[in-house]
Amino acid sequence: MSNPQQLRYSKEHEWLSTAEDGVSTVGITEFAANALGDVVYAQLPEVGSTVTAGDTCGELESTKSVSDLYSPVTGEITEINEDVVNDPALVNSAPFEGGWLFKVRVTEEPADLLSADEYAAHTAG
Amino acid sequence: MSSTEELRHTALDATHRSLGATMTDFAGWDMPLRYGSERDEHNAVRTRAGLFDLSHMGEITVTGPQAAAFLNHALVGNIASVGVGRARYTMICQADGGILDDLIVYRLADTEAGSSHYMVVANASNAQVVLDALTERVAGFDAEVRDDRDAYALIAVQGPESPGILKSLTDADLDGLKYYAGLPGTVAGVPALIARTGYTGEDGFELFVKPEHAVELWQALTKAGEGVGLVPCGLSCRDTLRLEAGMPLYGNELSTSLTPFDAGLGRVVKFDKEGDFVGREALAAAAARASENPPRVLVGLVAEGRRVPRAGYPVVAGGEVIGEVTSGAPSPTLGKPIAMAYVDAAHSAPGTAGVGVDIRGSHEPYEVVALPFYKRQK
């Protein structure tokens, strides 16, 4: 699997796009999606709510488990992916594209987000 | 299972790895959890066919002139009444009635000299416990208990296409092989015990073969199933398949703190069989208790929402805890989360209003239903 070079990554396996007009898109990585198995339910943060970097902001349920969703940055939620709410399998089939989870107006970004190569090294262990 | 202990590998280990399986530690065995999407594997078994490696199951051979009398004493069922070539779902209980394991017992053969040959198949997690109990209980009987866990690999073909797939590889009379029957035969040139059993709620077969023949048989089945959509299947879909079919899993619905009557499976206990058996007195009391004043009853729950109940989650009604989930999963067939749960008898009738599951602090509404959730059309 390959992690897109233009994204940055958290150690909790979320990815973050480069901000456009201050808004970044967030999803989970292919590595995380594979580890979860078929995602059957996504509880995403509410539009307008504030999320904090490193804190839980939702959950993803798969056949075998439920996993907390962490926000990689601090900011205000501007949009959630309704397609994923209606068809959570998108998280498995296109984690970096149609399976994105939410958009956030970033107010603060932690210093320890990883590059694609650093994330690859992180998951290789 | 301590993590320092070496995981055991089945004869098909390299095959699973070459298929890209996600592996998991199951009762000390490194087993395939899934090969791709567990939902696709589940649906393949419901509509076409799936291929499983179940070599972790624990086979124990019981032979001797008093093998039948011994098993009648050691287990709660009437094993002496099982005909040659047939199988029986049964349980082994403690003296206090608690369930040690649920089992399938096959009567493989009788000899002219009056000796019988049985195979007892235990859950992987309990195989040693069952072996120890049988070894202890055989004292005084003219019978022998043998650990045959390493003597067999077990491959299952399950799903509506499984008879056709198997027929293309064997001359054995599959049409004459009824559900819960087993006969020795040859499949793809490999000697096998062919059993019409399974744990999926579908028609299917379980093939007990020597471990050195496992890869050859797996490959032959894979090839024979190519045209009809057979896919390799992991333990994850096996769990959702058995849950939809309302079949209990030891460690979830069954435990030493429950009797078969508590689990709604009192029918497996045969008080009218010849001779005494381990647990009889306690089980008779449990039977009376269950019919007069049942403590909790095993029910099915179907979600109205999409959040999935998991084992151990409290079942609630009117703000009170009235039970506990024993197994829960998103059901691919129903398209909704489902669960099995023990609930207070007062809330156990199908359609009981106001029942929910406490899913990490939020009470989600659930419908109480009769088990199973899914029954195949015959």
From TrEMBL, chain A:
Keywords: Lipoyl. Its cofactor is (R)-lipoate. GO terms for cellular component: cytosol; glycine cleavage complex. SUPFAM superfamilies: Single hybrid motif (SSF51230). Binds 1 lipoyl cofactor covalently. It holds the Pfam family GCV_H. The modification N6-lipoyllysine is found at K64. Coiled coil: none annotated. The keyword Thylakoid does not apply. CDD domains: GCS_H (cd06848). Residues 23-105 form the Lipoyl-binding domain. GO terms for biological process: glycine decarboxylation via glycine cleavage system; protein lipoylation. It comes from the Bacteria. The glycine cleavage system catalyzes the degradation of glycine. The H protein shuttles the methylamine group of glycine from the P protein to the T protein. Belongs to the GcvH family. HAMAP family: GcvH. The glycine cleavage system is composed of four proteins: P, T, L and H. This is Glycine cleavage system H protein. It comes from Streptomyces viridochromogenes. The lineage of its organism: Bacteria, Bacillati, Actinomycetota, Actinomycetes, Kitasatosporales. The gene is gcvH.
UniProtKB/TrEMBL annotation, chain B:
Keywords: Aminotransferase, Transferase. One of its GO terms (cellular component) is cytosol. NCBIfam families: gcvT, PRK00389.1. The glycine cleavage system is composed of four proteins: P, T, L and H. Gene3D superfamilies: Aminomethyltransferase beta-barrel domains, Aminomethyltransferase fragment, Probable tRNA modification gtpase trme, domain 1. The keyword Transmembrane does not apply. GO terms for biological process: glycine decarboxylation via glycine cleavage system. The gene is gcvT. Belongs to the GcvT family. Transmembrane segments: none annotated. It holds the Pfam family GCV_T. Residues 14-273 form the GCVT N-terminal domain. GO terms for molecular function: aminomethyltransferase activity; transaminase activity. This is Aminomethyltransferase. It comes from Streptomyces viridochromogenes. SUPFAM superfamilies: Aminomethyltransferase beta-barrel domain, Folate-binding domain.
